[in-house]
Amino acid sequence: MANFIVGLTGGIGSGKTTVANLFAEQGIVLVDADIIAREVVAKGSDGLRQIGDKFGPQMLTPEGHLNRAALREQIFHHPQDREWLNALLHPMIRTRMLQQIAAASSPYVIMVVPLLFENGLDKLVHRTLVVDISPKLQLQRTIERDKVSKEQVQNIINSQSDRQTRLDKADDVIDNQGDVTALQSQVLALHNKYLQLAERQNP
């Protein structure tokens, strides 16, 4: 089990996945909240069954998967349903994350959580790492990547912690406004730092 956990976060389009994968190349186990969030509502899961019981069969596709568009529509128009959904899924996600951390064999673990501070999950980690880019670059990269409108991206940015709040709460920051070589050297420096911190944590 890894006894040292680094919480990796950043706004949409900041490059969290790219950074996480560079740590993975160093042999570090990743625990990804987005992947786990999909698993807890996968076909046949208890999470999906409870969503179907609550909102009806239209929440499932003909193949038995979650109808994400229908669920998004439901919680957009009914804020109390969003609260119900969060109360259902957040504990499931948290439990599974802790199970994966307990099973990890690397010296430390990177926990990738887009809403690390917003959902209070920074309490679970020893160190927080923010991937930082300018809002202008966030917009540009996300529009190019997801092929969505500027308005859609701006709405997501507005729903997340603002840049300064994230930076104020970060123990470490990676500047992802340059090229991949600059990114790799920052990750390597932090990797060595985290190895030392993990060693101190587990003498």
UniProtKB/TrEMBL annotation:
PANTHER family linked to this entry: BIFUNCTIONAL COENZYME A SYNTHASE-RELATED (PTHR10695:SF46), DEPHOSPHO-COA KINASE-RELATED (PTHR10695)
Catalytic reaction annotation: 3'-dephospho-CoA + ATP = ADP + CoA + H(+)
Matching HAMAP family: Dephospho_CoA_kinase
Protein keywords: ATP-binding, Coenzyme A biosynthesis, Cytoplasm, Kinase, Nucleotide-binding, Transferase
A Pfam family hit: CoaE
Function: Catalyzes the phosphorylation of the 3'-hydroxyl group of dephosphocoenzyme A to form coenzyme A.
Family matches, as SUPFAM superfamilies: P-loop containing nucleoside triphosphate hydrolases
EC category name: transferase
The protein's annotated pathway: Cofactor biosynthesis; coenzyme A biosynthesis; CoA from (R)-pantothenate: step 5/5
Organism in which the protein naturally occurs: Shewanella carassii
InterPro entries: Depp_CoAkinase (IPR001977), P-loop_NTPase (IPR027417)
Similarity-based family: Belongs to the CoaE family.
Main localization of the protein described in the UniProt heading: cytoplasm
GO molecular function annotation: kinase activity
Protein EC: 2.7.1.24
UniProt name for this protein: Dephospho-CoA kinase
Residues that bind ATP: 13-18
Compartments it resides in: Cytoplasm
